[in-house]
Amino acid sequence: MRFGREQQALGAPAFAYRLTDQGEAQFPNDYRDALTELLRHVAQKTGRGAVLEMFQGRYSQLTERLKVELAVAPAERRLEVVARVLTEAGYMAEWRETDGVFVLLEHNCAMRAVVEQFPEICVAEEKFLREVLGAGVERQAHIVRGCNACEYAITFGAPGSAAAPVSEQV
Hints:
The chain has one domain: Muramoyl-pentapeptide Carboxypeptidase, domain 2, CATH 3.30.1380. It is about 50% helix and about 20% strand. It has seven helices and six strands, in the order ββααααββααββα. Strand 3 (about 95-100) and strand 4 (about 100-105) form a beta hairpin. The longest helix has 23 residues, at about 50-70.
């Protein structure tokens, strides 16, 4: 809850109270169910491929947005930026490096209810990670399969991966 003083047309200022985003999250909402229902409707009308295309389009827009920031960034910086963006989207992401091996972890699936209905969305996410990081990406663990996190092994300079940062791939 946050509050502040607001000047009224007449009389003394009054306190105005508003919910913060955290407070708002405590109240029931129907976003998850509504989104899942809408995507099921799209899949019934035009096929599951249309749902996948929608998410690929979303990830493509995100890749475009990150191009400038990742243009000549080293691997660590690319992982840092991607983890930050994923965390802002609710994925609680982090990365680590051990003996030259990079791992990206997502401790929360912000789209879990949707992914349970449309697991192909995870394929779009993996493709996004490959493109935006310019690296080989292989999922090692998956939340919807009962793991504690989605875990991706990231290999920079791997065969079949984009060898250059995103902006040089265009």
